[in-house]
Structure formats: C-alpha cells, structure tokens
Amino acid sequence: MSPAGPPDTDKSTATTNNEPTPSPLPVNISPRSQSAAPRPHPKPGFPTCKLRIECHDLTHDGAHVFFSNNEPSRDLASAVSTVLSVLYKPSQSNSHIPPVRSVTFVLRAMEILAYTTGSELDDDHKEIHFSLDYIKKIPPEPENRQRDEIQGVLVHEMVHCWQWNGHGTAPSGLIEGIADFVRLKAGLAPPHWKKEKSKEWDEGYQHTGYFLDWIETFYGEGSVRRINEALMNKKYDGEVFWKNLFGKYVQELWDEYNKTLPEKEIIGNPDMEKASDDNIVAQKHKIKPKDEVQKVLE
Prior knowledge:
This protein is α/β, with parallel strands linked by helices. The protein has twelve helices and four strands, in the order H-E-H-H-E-E-E-H-H-H-H-H-H-H-H-H. It has helices at 11-18, 61-69, 72-87, 132-137, 145-162, 172-185, 205-219, 223-230, 241-246, 250-258, 277-284, 290-297, and strands at 50-55, 102-108, 114-118, 125-131. A hairpin with a 6-residue loop joins strand 3 and strand 4. Helix 6 crosses helix 7 (205-219). The termini are far apart.
C-alpha cells in the first residue's frame, strides 16, 4: 500500500484565493458628470500706495513731539484707511478712486500749518507738508491732545490726496469742508470746534464740515460719499449740483441746517473775530498751488 499523499487541492479555488479581486467600477463619478465647486470671488479691497516720511530736522522740538506721540508707519496707514472708508466703497477695479501711487509726509519748519500738493514727478505722487513749528506749540494737555491734533491734521491733509475736485472747479470751502468732515467722522475734532451759524455754507473747514455732517445725518449715510463722487467726472455747477443729489439748492439746505443751530455768541470786540485762533488756522491751512508751494520751498 502506498503511503497516503496530501489531500487533493482544488486548484481553481487556490488560484482564486491568491489573486486580487477587482473592485467594481464607481457609479456616476465621471468627471463630465460632476460640476466643479464654484470658487468664491475675492472680496474687494481698497487700493494701497507707498508711504514715505521725511524729517528735515530731527533736532527740532516739533520733531521730538511728533515722534514721541506718533508711530509713522501705523498712523499714515491708518489715515489712508480712514479716508478711503469714509469717501468710497471698494470695487473689483476701484476705478472710481484716484490712482494715488505714493504719499510722502514731510516734516519741516515753516510758517503755514500744513498743505498737500502733487510731487514734481507727477500728480499721482502726493506730498503732505506739516509744520514742525506748529507741532511744537500743540499743548500736551489734556491727555493725547498732541497725538490727536497731529493725527487730525494728517487725516485732513490725506483727504486732499484722495478726494475728487470737479477738475479743479469745486469751491475751496467744499474741498476743505469734506476734509474736516472726514476728520470729524474719525473722532479727531479738536476742542475748539463748534457748531455755530456762519454767513456762507462754503466758509470751509469745520463750519462746512458740520454742515456736511448734518446732510449725512438727514439725507442718509453715504451722502458725502455721493458728493465726492459727483465731483469725479464733471465740473462743479452750483445751480444743478446739489439739486441733482438732494432735490434742493445748497442755500435751501444751508438755511435748514442753520435753523438747527444756536445763535453765535460774540464776546468782546466783533471786529477782532477774524483774529481768532480758528481763523488763523484756516488761513494757514489752505492747499497751496504748485507755484506757491515752490515759493515756500525756496
């Protein structure tokens, strides 16, 4: 009898067990049958520009006050952000915003308080000149007074870098009033500002700034933004400008605004009123034409 051999093995079974079993084809996942998930559009943002600073005399007392209270990289960027957020809404192209490429902040000794101009390179490069002599005289009290005054002037002048002006035809009082309106919205109004009656709506600075603030309140948020953007492509025509925007002439709006104000209190000699600090600041705070700027620089 032959010895018992190994038990018979089912070769087909062994072969099947040793080979991988193919997975079934997936159902309904053909690239053609599935649409790609939509990509969200990036949220529009404001344009940026290069920011520079020059100080002509680091030993000046005004330079000490400035650098003791302000951080230039932070405060210049903050001023740009404040101005753009008040005067504009961002879009994908931002073609409705002036194409400012750089702003140079110049600290130097000079008699006038501050001014803004285009650089010698071209008008897309701006310069803000700020008086070290004025900075030196800003009182330190109350707390943060020096910093707030410096930042308030900086915001005011930064508006002039980014606002429209009706191709140079808008009243200077409106241009200055928009700048002080933005300063007001930034919470940087100085202690001497007051809401008070005055003769003309375009007297400028805080007088027109408070008037624009009333329009913003009465006619809705974004009203001053509309005023600025209406000066983008057209020359200023006072006969139709305000009526197109608010349905009334500017004098009608001004009269309504003045009805909300108390009578202006005059103390002392009325003839001396023009010599008040407010008016001195106003006279020194004008935007200088390029030819006048050149005279100052010389």
